[in-house]
Amino acid sequence: MRVNQAIERRVIMAAEYIVATGATVRAAAKVLGVSKSTVHKDMETRLAQLSEPLSKEVAAVFARNKAQRHLRGGEATRRRYARLREKNI
Which end of the chain is more exposed for a tag (fewer CB within 10 A), N or C? Predict the structure, then answer.
């Protein structure tokens, strides 16, 4: 198998996973066993060349994730301080 074919297959597989699950870049990278940078580059540049409709779907998922990012961060902070309070009690 050519290297380009392997990359193309990885890009399409990652995009389909992100669209199906609504995963963040970090979550997709963890599941696929690649770095966040790889997933980001795949979705931002390579996917547009392979499948424009799929690229638009991924962009919509990323936009939704970005809009919700402050909520996830706030929840993580709340859990962190709740754990610290439990330790001090």
Answer: C
